[in-house]
């Protein structure tokens, strides 16, 4: 009977007239009333106190099914209208608010079953188990309704994207002499007008979700605009956007009346802020950040690695950095015969610390996945340079090809500040070899690579990007 009543309510749906500022329609009122009457019956037969294994549990299941049926009908109609494919462009903002509020009204009505006082407080095991099952049933339905409401509300942010994009563009490309606090005015005025309307038309919980969606849209537009500046724009361009990001965070927090600050400073905000810092950093600094990330990943990568491992000894002796490349095992096969012809390239990084240290390489070991080199190399470098926290030895394993370019097999890094002879005055012998897992790159959309790739007139950036693109794992 409840499901039939909901279907009829949706078929006869019409806007609620009168002085109601919050937008909603009759179908949500009828469905909420149906849930209210079911809740009265549930209470009258004792709720969970008489044992939810009987009629009360079935009534609870019926209430959840009723609320979810309403959400299914609403979403089915929206899908048939192409609402999700065209991001709600066939609906006005008011119509979208009505849909979102309808779902929220029904969710609020079902949430009444989740009140603590509606379940028994008895402590026997059976009662506690049945109470928990009942709560999980209701909360599962509430979670589904929340997800449906969030999906229906998504076009609110999509509808705002064109004017939002225009306002962010105005902010980014305003004259350099115009302070950020003035350049951001059109953007803040648009946001204030847009959010004020939503605050009037939406229920509080729905408005909070819309506010979070709008903040996410703002972050995306600011990030996109920062990337659009590329390397040709002066640093003041990205500095302005970074200042604007702080002003926007304060706007959405609204002195505690908007989003909580931990929701403003979310993961997405952190990524955009980091991207801003990368844009402002010179190429040499970005290369050192990249190297630090690779060293950190080396520490996190366990043995065995899917790309094999390399065995080396590294120590500082007198005025030289000594590297013994001993062997590798389980190198990935890169030749048609299921083997490889591996060799190792040794390089000291960053170049700022070791400007005169050139790359060196081992001999090629033919047709093997477990090569043995037993070769020693020396780099004439200062102890002071090796003690730098950024100093590292890069070991990259390659497969030699005669007719085509050499294939990348994996790489490993050693932080020089930790090796014998650098972090201690103890004699370097006897030395235990280091077995290092070999790694490959996986994130083709790494922000540092993207930003360096945009610096088309910077030879250092272009050379680095070209070099790294050879090191990505096959998808």
From TrEMBL:
PROSITE patterns, per the entry: C2, MHD2
GO CC annotation terms, alphabetical: secretory vesicle
Annotated Pfam families: C2, TPR_PATROL1
Domain of life: Eukaryota
Domain annotation C2: ranges: 302-429
GO biological process: exocytosis
Keyword vocabulary terms for this entry: Exocytosis
Domain MHD2: 181-290
Similarity section: Belongs to the unc-13 family.
Protein known as: BAI1-associated protein 3
Organism placement in taxonomy: Eukaryota, Metazoa, Ecdysozoa, Arthropoda, Hexapoda
């Amino acid at each position: 009977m409840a499901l039939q009543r909901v279907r009829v309510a949706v078929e006869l749906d019409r806007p609620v007239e009168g002085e109601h500022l919050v937008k909603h329609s009759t179908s949500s009122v009828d469905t909420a009333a149906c849930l209210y009457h079911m809740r009265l019956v549930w209470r009258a037969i004792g709720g969970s106190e008489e044992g939810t294994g009987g009629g009360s549990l079935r009534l609870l299941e019926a209430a959840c099914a009723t609320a979810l049926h309403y959400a299914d009908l609403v979403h089915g109609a929206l899908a048939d209208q192409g609402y999700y494919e065209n991001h709600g462009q066939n609906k006005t903002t008011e119509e979208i608010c009505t849909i979102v509020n309808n779902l929220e009204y029904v969710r609020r009505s079902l949430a009444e079953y989740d009140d603590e006082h509606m379940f028994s407080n008895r402590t026997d095991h059976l009662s506690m188990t049945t109470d928990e099952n009942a709560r999980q049933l209701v909360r599962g339905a509430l979670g589904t309704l929340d997800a449906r409401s969030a999906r229906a509300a998504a076009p609110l942010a999509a509808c705002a994207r064109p004017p939002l994009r225009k306002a962010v563009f105005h902010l980014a490309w305003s004259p350099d002499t115009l302070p950020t606090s003035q350049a951001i005015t059109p953007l803040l005025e648009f946001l204030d007008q847009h959010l004020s309307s939503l605050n009037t038309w939406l229920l509080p919980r729905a408005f909070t979700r819309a506010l979070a969606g709008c903040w996410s849209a703002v972050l995306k537009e600011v990030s996109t605009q920062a990337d659009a500046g590329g390397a040709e724009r002066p640093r003041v361009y990205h500095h302005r956007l970074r200042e604007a990001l702080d002003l926007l965070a304060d706007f959405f927090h609204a002195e505690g009346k908007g989003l909580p600050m931990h929701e403003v400073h979310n993961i997405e905000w952190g990524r955009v802020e980091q991207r801003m810092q990368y844009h402002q950093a010179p190429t040499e600094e970005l290369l050192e950040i990249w190297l630090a990330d690779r060293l950190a990943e080396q520490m996190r990568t366990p043995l065995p690695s899917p790309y094999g491992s390399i065995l080396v000894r590294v120590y500082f002796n007198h005025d030289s950095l000594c590297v013994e490349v001993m062997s590798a095992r389980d190198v990935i096969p890169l030749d048609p015969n299921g083997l490889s012809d591996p060799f190792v390239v040794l390089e000291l990084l960053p170049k700022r610390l070791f400007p005169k240290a050139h790359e060196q390489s081992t001999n090629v070991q033919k047709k093997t996945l477990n090569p043995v080199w037993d070769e020693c190399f020396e780099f004439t470098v200062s102890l002071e340079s090796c003690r730098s926290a950024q100093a590292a030895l890069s070991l990259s394993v390659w497969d030699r090809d005669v007719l085509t370019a050499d294939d990348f097999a994996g790489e490993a890094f050693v932080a020089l500040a930790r090796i014998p002879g650098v972090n201690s005055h103890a004699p370097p012998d006897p030395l235990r070899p280091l077995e290092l897992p070999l790694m490959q790159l996986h994130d083709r959309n790494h922000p540092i690579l993207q930003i360096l790739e945009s610096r088309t007139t910077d030879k250092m950036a272009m050379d680095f990007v070209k070099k790294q693109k050879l090191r990505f794992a096959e998808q």
